[in-house]
Amino acid sequence: MASEESRLKDLLDDFSLSLVMVDPDNLISLGELLEKVETLAREFEGLDSKEAGLILTGLNKSLEGIILEQVRDKVAAMELIGQGAALLQELERSLGAGVPFKGDLSGFLAGLKAEAGVTLPGLGGQAESTEAVDSAEQAVGPEAAPAAETSPASAEEPVSDFSQDQELFFSFITEALEHIETIEINIVSLEQDPEDKNTINSIFRPFHTIKGVAGFLNLRQIHHLTHQVENLLDDARNERIKVTPALTDLVLDAVDMVKKMIHDLQSSLDNGRPAPADYGEKALIDRIHILQQGEAVKAEEPAVSRYAGQKIGDILVDQGLLSEDELETALQVQEGGRLRRLGEILVERGVISPEGLEEALRLQAEVPDKKLGEILVEAGRAEPAAVSSALKDQENLRERKLGEILIMEKRTGAREVAEALREQKKAPEGGPAAAAHTVKIDTIKLDNLVDLVGELVIAQSLIAANEKIRSLKDQKVVRDLNSMARITSELQRTAMGMRMVPIRQTFQKMIRLVRDLSRKSGKQVELTMSGEETEIDRNMVEAIYDPLIHMIRNSIDHGIEPPDLRAEKGKPIEGRIHLRAFHQGGHVVIEIEDDGQGLNRDKILVKAVERGLVGPEDNLSDAAVYNLIFLPGFSTADKITDVSGRGVGMDVVKKAIDKLSGKVEINSRPDQGSTITIRLPLTLAIIDGMIVQVGQNRYILPTMAIHESFRPQPGDYHTVKGQGEMIKVRDSLLPLIRLNEILGVETSVTDPTKALVVVLENENQRRCVMVDEVLGKQEVVIKNLGQALKNVRTLAGGSILGDGRVGLILDVAGLFEVSQGFSGRSLVRQDETLDEDWGMGPT
Amino acid sequence: MTEQTAAAGTRSVKETGRKGEKAGLLEREGKYLTFELAQESYGLEILKVREIIGMMDITAVPQTPAFVKGLINLRGKVIPVVDLRLKFGLPEKEYTERTAIIVVEIRTASGPVQMGIVVDTVSEVMNIAGQDIESTPNFGARLKTDYILGMAKVKGRVIILLDIDRVLTDEELTLAGGA
Predict the structure, then answer these.
(1) A789, A790, A819, A820, best to mutate vs chain B, most B CBs in 10 Å
(2) Would you list the DSSP string of A257-274?
(3) How far apart, in whole angstroms, are the C-alpha atoms of residue A445 and residue A441?
(4) What average pLDDT does this structure show over A482-503?
(5) What is the pLDDT of residues B99-108, one digit of tens each?
(6) Fewest 10 Å CB contacts: which of A95, A335, A752, B171?
(7) Shortest CB distance from B176 goes to which of A791, A799, A800?
(8) What are phi and psi of B165, to 5 degrees?
(9) How far is A396 from B55, CA to CA, in rounded Å?
(10) How far is B63 from chain A (nearest CA, A)?
(11) Within its chain, how far is the Cα of A686 from the centroid?
């Protein structure tokens, strides 16, 4: 069934895209990938394909192998998985087209054996590592499999018996989390003053405590990890090693891992689910050992940073890690902390009421030497415990650094503050940033508001157009109505504007990515951006993130040359990627520009011809050739890197952008660089539509898909026996779709030369669609039609027209699809006689 | 089966020979909105009813089964409307000024969904006691008895209590024929 196929295709695309994003060291993303493989396996089951079964089993086992750190070379294994994904897509395509599968299965299977030690039936022979494979299947469960290299932590980890001593575990969890908070705050201090012994001690001690209790409670993993960190810190405080950013990073990583372990412990206690056997502690502990040996760590950060000398709060806001609001609050706390009165703290916490405070203050005035806290306790207005806790906080919050306040109030993580501090340290003074005020709103409320405002606009225009009201001919009425129209219009603009957010956040996330990637690839790349304040629809922010990431990775992998090559070419050693966003004619345009080597026109063309995507004689412009890379299965990379080059790339990006009703294209100048331009509608919720009439019904066609419209001359109409009707549009013959037939409605206009023909374009295909009339352009709000109607392929959504009635928005791709399998007869009523023979011969 | 007299506060199980079902029908007790369709009375659990509106313009949607009448604009939201007569295979009737659309909120796999159902007239909200509800006899093919929670006997009439979630989330509803 068509919908099943496209679901499979979607799943495969989604899998490929995730594959591209995954970081082989990130357990969570690997776990997600594994889930996706399992979903794919279920889907393929129905298709009964042996090859698919093999590939999927192979993928499953290799992923598990990576997760359990049983593969030697993670990068190679990931490549293999990419190969598998590409093979699956090939398979899906062949199945869809009904042709036999031609992919290189044996190569893939051989690779599996070599890299992941996975042997699948069909290749014969026993694998030495079958055991590893089998135990891999059971690994994530109560019994941990013996890992290839034994290490005390991950080997033979019997689940601790939680049935008794629940109390003990609970209090351990609470205390441990408190200790971790302390650790995080102090690490930040350590960043600023790496020589301070006291700070090191105040990090050492909590680790020591956690280690002790964990040992007592037989929590081996936590015990072992904290033990290692404790040793590291011990070395640091005895000056055997120096405190460097690498060390603090490491400790923070360890803290994260311990946190996870503790939270998993909590879950096991709550719902009996056993904790994972492996958190990847081994890798972390290795890093600890390396540091302990005092190996030099290469300096990664450039000497001067964008954030040099800025205030820490501003840096964090800029990085999108903190909202302006939260910064304000924290600053107030910091200010107030110095002068904060006990009374204020108590009122804030709801321990006493403002009136109660007033009273107590009056009492205090009478007996000046009495402390406020005492008065409150004596008057029975506050518990001694509450007062002493407030007093503690009063002390705590005074004179604290902003970073610490932020961590204590849990506004940001310790790691972010530490990094921000590092950024800040790099060079002389800068200036403050302006603060803006924001609020968080539930999107459902926003959507409801927008819906209602839409209705208001319609209701108001209905009143204004009402005959009886117009016949009043009263000046004041007219003026008031106009005023109402203006206000409603403004209201609508504001409501729609609330959906927009600046693209800055998304761009910011790319900074980190570029830094990581450039380090990984050994190339030097700098990311610059402009137009970050450009606003896009909030629904698009998520959706645009993945494609952007992929395109940037592509740039770095294939575009930017290695430093020596760049030097040879006379280019600056540091490659530059520039992100630009701006509004242009009802669209948001995002450009990704790099100054790398550009696209190789010839190579692309060769590959395209090879894959049968274009004919060898076709005359294509440069631009057309460059845009071939968006076709599925395309890759000219000689070497498959960690990410790109698997041929699962640009077409998935294009699909993602298409889903957003956007357009993407690429342009390039050899050796100078490439520019990818993405054009997105201002908002997903509104489209520009053309209202057309067919019979008694009105429908909406997305303007974006409309190429032109006209009334055909008799000479333009052609029939091709057995293939249906066509209209000549300039020099090409385009198939004709009769909208009334596809939609099953009646119309009296059956002669194309008396009707209007609209040329629609979708995915490089063009068709002529015949309608009675074109009524006009209108911006319409797209409303989702929901579950019941999601299978109607010809519909993209519903909308409310100016008279309050529902208008159906047609889906161009769906229209084309449906008309393809369409005999032209089935929806025509039995007794309808055709005026003339339009050439619709027997089907 | 023997007669069982339950403890104070519950009603006695009357008929022998029927297992299980009898006890279950006590659960069906509650408030129902009753309406008419082709001279038969039906009931809907009141908690699932969101509102009742008079007939309004319905925009037809292509490629949907006949009982899916189309879409309406409900204060800015676009919701689908189903004609229950057609869904139950009853002859279609012209809409009068008494014809109404009951907007119900049903549970689907993807969350709560609002839909409208067209009925001949809306009657009243009534409290139906468990003892007045009997389990469904088998009508044969005409009316799928999966849809029916039970048959209530009130004031001499029989009211068919519908499981509206089942009625509206039927596979048929989401299958839209392609070409």
Answers:
(1) A789
(2) HHHHHHHHHHHHHHH-PP
(3) 7
(4) 85
(5) 999 999 988 7
(6) B171
(7) A791
(8) -60, -45
(9) 66
(10) 6
(11) 22
- Contact call for residues B101 and B33 (beta carbons, < 8 A): no
Task: Give the CA dihedral B108, B114, B119, B125, nearest 10 degrees.
Answer: 90
Q: Which ipTM did the prediction report?
A: 0.73
Confidence of residue A104 (pLDDT cuts 50, 70, 90): low
The C-alpha angle A641, A644, A645, rounded to 5 degrees, equals 80
What b/e string do you get for A176-214 counting C-beta neighbours within 10 Å, with b at 16 or more? beebbbbbbbbbbbbbbebeeeebbebbbbbbbbbbebb
User: A619 in helix, strand or coil?
Assistant: coil
| Cβ distance of A2 and B178 shorter than 8 Å | yes
Beta strand B148-154 pairing with B133-134: antiparallel
DSSP string, A356-399: HHHHHHHHHHHSTTS-HHHHHHHTTSS-HHHHHHHHHHHHHHTT
Select the residue of B60, B61, B179 nearest A826 (Cβ to Cβ).
Answer: B179
| A vs B: CB pairs below 8 A | 95
Interface with chain A: mutation pick from B53, B67, B71, B104, highest number of A CBs within 10 Å: B71
| Rounded Cα–Cα distance for residues A21 and A513 (Å) | 11
B76/A452 touch (CB, cutoff 8 Å), yes or no:
yes
Rounded Cα gap, residues A656 and A512, in angstroms = 23
Residue with structure tokens 């393929």? Answer: A44
Which residue is it, tokens 């690490």?
A: A187
Q: Is B151 helix (H, G, I), strand (E, B) or coil?
A: strand
Kindly give the pairing relationship between strand B100-108 and strand B133-134.
Answer: unpaired
- In angstroms, what separates the C-alpha of A721 from chain B's closest C-alpha? 21
**Pairwise pLDDT comparison (A345 vs B133), residue with the higher score:** B133
The closest alpha carbon to A317, from A203, A411, A219, A444, belongs to A411
- Rounded-to-integer distance, Cα A344 and Cα A18, Å: 50
Alpha helices in A22-100 (DSSP H): 27-45, 50-67, 74-97
* DSSP state, residue A730: T
pLDDT at B20 over 80: no
Question: Where would I find the H helices in A121-219?
Answer: 130-139, 166-192, 197-216
A690-736 pLDDT, tens digit each: 999 998 889 999 888 898 988 988 888 888 776 678 888 888 888 88
The amino acid sitting at A366 is E
Residue A250: closest CA among A329, A191, A206, A198: A191
**CA–CA dist A658, A679 (Å, integer):** 10
Cβ count near A321 (within 10 Å): 19
Three-state DSSP class for A297?
coil
> CB distance A792–B174 less than 8 Å?
no
The letter for the amino acid at A50 is K
Residue A606 touches chain B, beta carbons under 8 Å: no
* pTM assigned to the model: 0.47
How many secondary structure helices (H) and strands (E) does chain B include? 4, 11
Q: Is A227 exposed, middle or buried (0-12, 13-18, 19+ CB in 10 A)?
A: buried
d(CA A611, CA A633): 9
Rounded to the nearest angstrom, the gap between the alpha carbon of residue A277 and the centroid of all alpha carbons in its chain is: 29
Q: Under the phi-then-psi rule, with left for phi > 0, alpha for psi from -120 to 50, and beta for the rest, what region is A580?
A: beta
Q: What are the chain A neighbours of B109 within 8 Å (beta carbons)? A: 787
Which residues on A lie below 8 Å from B173 (Cβ)? Answer: 788
Chain A residues with CB-CB distance to B73 below 8 A = 800, 804-806
Segment A316-345 mean pLDDT: 64
Beta partners for residue B83, in sequence order: B118
